[in-house]
Amino acid sequence: MNRPLVRVTVPASTANLGPGFDAVGMAFRLYSTVEMALSETTEIVLIGEELEGLPADKGNLLYQVAAGLFEEAGLPVPELYIRAETEAPLTRGLGSSAAAIIGALVAANSLAGEPFDRERLFAIATRLEGHPDNVGASLFGGIVVATMPERDGEPIPYVRLAPPEGLHTFVIIPDYPLSTEKARNVLPAVYSKQDVIYNVGHSSLLVAALAQGRLDLLGQAMGDRLHQPYRAALVPGLREILDGAPRNGALGAALSGAGPTILCYYSTDAEREKLQAFVDSVMRKHGVSYRTMRLRPDERGAQVTISTR
Ligand SMILES: Nc1ncnc2c1ncn2[C@@H]1O[C@H](COP(=O)(O)OP(=O)(O)OP(=O)(O)O)[C@@H](O)[C@H]1O
Ligand SMILES: N[C@@H](CCO)C(=O)O
């Protein structure tokens, strides 16, 4: 057919890092790919077990997001060929929905002739996802600190940081899913003054420590009172791992995004081995099946290549 085929590779991400609720994200070398081309009729090909059961028609999130971009650009919505694949598990707290949104937006933007720059894509993705943390990390790579703009339609204010040297990530991924919606629904509508002050202090310290490579401060800086205490009821073992990880090799630990994945930072192989043994004992006690992974930070964000179909 010889039509342009856009391939976008998007990193998975973690969000919050403890206190930076909805504001701090970090990208990982664990990738989703979205291929997209204009087509006679819409065809959606989903590869692999992770994407099994998702709609393979125009109800698919990828098509919906792409169609929205064409509309926003004032262009007719075309029929699309879309092929998707992911290394990242869905509904586990590793930003799969954000990666899908970024993949579809970047691919559709390329097919539409680049009507929007990356800042505008970030704003559109944030509107779709509801918060900027995962989408910012997936789009730009590295660590992204961002917040919602004061007024609708304004650019998302953000700063991108390079991940500190020597910061290694160990994630514990339970086998059960936890949707972000469910994990947000358990949060209270109102917080006490003490808890808000606690999180402002810890989140500020976290960002400063990441910016200056002060890995020694992460254990204290990653304390949170806004979401982890409430989500712990949905994630067996979370409380013990957050409490015990710093004494068992971790520089700091947090729920990854909305969970149920738990993230620990460490420096050396010996620390990771100690952590693995600790995590095994906690998860065995709770009867939870899970896997662990070492993840390296992604620093490139969404990458585009164009071929023909
Ligand atoms: N490649 C994809 N194609 C279509 N839909 C997807 C794709 N990837 C993710 N999704 C949608 O996103 C949902 C998962 O989003 P959810 O916010 O619950 O979890 P997450 O993004 O994996 O975790 P978190 O936001 O906590 O990091 C899936 O159930 C599915 O509906
Ligand atoms: N900041 C979000 C990430 C999940 O999408 C949350 O914790 O709910």
TrEMBL record:
It is an enzyme of class 2 (transferase). GO terms for biological process: threonine biosynthetic process. Residues 207-283 form the GHMP kinase C-terminal domain. Residues 60-142 form the GHMP kinase N-terminal domain. It is found in: Cytoplasm. Its main location: cytoplasm. It comes from the Bacteria. It catalyses: L-homoserine + ATP = O-phospho-L-homoserine + ADP + H(+). One of its GO terms (molecular function) is homoserine kinase activity. GO terms for cellular component: cytoplasm. ATP binds at P89, L90, T91, R92, G93, L94, G95, S96, S97, A98, A99. Its EC number is 2.7.1.39. Pathway: Amino-acid biosynthesis; L-threonine biosynthesis; L-threonine from L-aspartate: step 4/5. Belongs to the GHMP kinase family. Homoserine kinase subfamily. Catalyzes the ATP-dependent phosphorylation of L-homoserine to L-homoserine phosphate. This is Homoserine kinase. The lineage of its organism: Bacteria, Bacillati, Bacillota, Bacilli, Bacillales.
